[in-house]
Write a structure and sequence with these properties.
Helix content: 25-40%
Bound molecules: N-(iminomethyl)-L-glutamic acid, fe (iii) ion
Number of helices: 17
CATH architecture of the largest domain: Alpha-Beta Barrel
Shape: globular
Oligomer: single chain
CATH topology of the largest domain: TIM Barrel
Length: about 425
């Protein structure tokens, strides 16, 4: 009998998402393969999964100081949110109402609202104030079953303010593995998004702002190792294809991985650019072309779909998830959590929208929120499935089957969240 730290046993439905994980899951067959073990158990030691199997088998091989009985529960890998904007100041509830009355996101932005509103608030705030504002949101990701998020800067748009945002992210990250610190925060993968909007002071000089990004911001972010990825909001009247390419080329030169907000509103060819540049993911893709799907497939770019944005903007043109999956493009899901276009920390809610509005199956939605999201963050070796050697990021759900996660929508079925082997403080039970 080997001694481990924790055994979770009698799990009614253990969804390991294990199996062919040497590349992102693509195609309906792979995306519906969940590696389910009935009456399952997990053995955990030093923050890692030691073994997954039936309760019978695990109990014969391991003993533990601590056990959790998961009778009647579903257990999945911790959810992974591969696209969020969580460090900001203020809210945009008034814009939400304006949009309901018919104003478009672009019209609000053109009047100085939208991202620019949040930028003004962020510039006026200290790093401490930003952290105080972000902490409850980060905590809520855990409450809804998310153990890792990607987090973007992008509401500063000056060297100083972008660094302030990335430092806040870094400080949160340093709390996670410190046992003395407040727990209940997700792990964070930081992304530099200086190219989120053209700030007012460069209104008539976009190239000047691009130069600031490539000559000052990217080198500084890279030197101080403040981000893993660089992202660009590639959109009509913001950073168009050539602008985005210039920024991504600089980021690549400085060793950052690449991501792209691509083809969200207009079919500019962002997906094609992401493929040409070797980006790890292209995100949004509501207006993607067939050629874009083909090129992303050829280059192994993960499509990160953000249906919460389509939903909250009241639009109808959801990204063509079915077409992408059936064509063989690996797809991930994310919240796009931000105060403007998608104000939710709940990946389960996103899974519900993905199933109902994009016709993804519950299994595809779960694969898209776990192992494929891990691929979209370059983290698939460590997280995304419950397999020997991976981090013990685990969610226990008050549900008899994983299908209930999207089916039972708008409520929180999370019972317990375990991150790196540690049960997290969880304040939102059944909330
Ligand atoms: O991904 N589209 C650009 N960025 C965000 C929105 C940010 C905001 O409106 O504050 C997005 O939807
Ligand atoms: Fe976004």
């Amino acid at each position: 009998m080997k001694k481990v730290d924790l055994i979770i046993h009698n799990i009614s439905e253990l969804v390991t998402v294990s199996g062919s994980n040497n590349r992102p899951r693509a195609g309906a067959a792979a995306m519906n393969d969940l590696g389910i073990i009935t009456d399952g158990a997990l053995a955990v030691k030093d923050g890692k999964i030691i073994a997954a199997g039936t309760t019978n088998k695990i109990k014969k091989q391991y003993r533990a100081g601590k056990t959790i009985n998961a009778t009647g529960k579903t257990v999945t890998p911790g959810l992974i949110d591969a696209h969020t904007h969580p460090i900001f100041m203020g809210d945009r509830a008034d814009e939400f109402e304006l949009k309901l009355k018919g104003a478009t996101y672009q019209e609000i932005a053109a009047k100085g609202g939208g991202i620019k509103f949040t930028v003004r608030k962020v510039r006026a705030a200290s790093k401490q104030e930003l952290k105080t504002n972000a902490r409850p949101y980060l905590h809520r990701f855990i409450n809804y079953g998310t153990t890792t998020i990607e987090a973007k800067s992008g509401y500063g748009l000056t060297l100083k303010d972008e660094i302030k945002l990335l430092e806040a992210i870094k400080e949160f990250k340093s709390e996670i593995r410190n046992p003395k610190s407040e727990i209940g925060l997700p792990d964070i993968v930081p992304t530099f998004l200086g190219a989120h909007e053209i700030p007012d002071e460069y209104k008539n000089n976009k190239q000047g702002y691009i130069n600031l990004i490539t000559a000052k911001m990217i080198p500084e972010v890279s030197r101080r190792k403040l981000a893993r990825f660089c992202d660009v909001f590639c959109e009509k009247n913001v950073f168009e294809i050539d602008d985005s390419r210039e920024i991504l080329e600089s980021a690549r030169k400085y060793g950052l991985g690449l991501k792209l907000h691509a083809d969200e509103f207009a079919p500019l060819g962002g997906a094609e650019l992401a493929a040409q540049m070797g980006a790890v993911s292209a995100d949004h893709l509501m207006a993607i072309s067939d050629n874009g799907i083909k090129q992303m497939m050829q280059k192994g770019v993960v499509g990160v779909l953000l249906p919460g944005t389509t939903f909250a903007l009241g639009l109808k043109n959801y990204a063509p998830a079915r077409k992408m999956i059936d064509a063989g493009l690996p797809v991930a899901l994310a919240t796009d959590f931000n105060p403007g276009t998608s104000f939710t920390e709940s990946l389960p809610m996103i899974m519900s929208i993905a199933c109902v509005m994009m016709r993804m199956t519950p299994a595809e939605a779960l694969v898209a929120s776990t192992v494929n999201a891990a691929w979209a963050l370059g983290e698939a070796a460590n997280i995304g499935s419950l397999e020997t050697g991976k981090d013990a990021d685990i969610v226990l759900w008050s549900a008899p089957s994983y299908k209930h996660i999207p089916y039972h929508f708008g409520v929180n079925l999370v019972e317990t969240v375990i991150q790196k082997g540690e049960p997290q403080i969880h304040t939102d039970k059944h909330g």
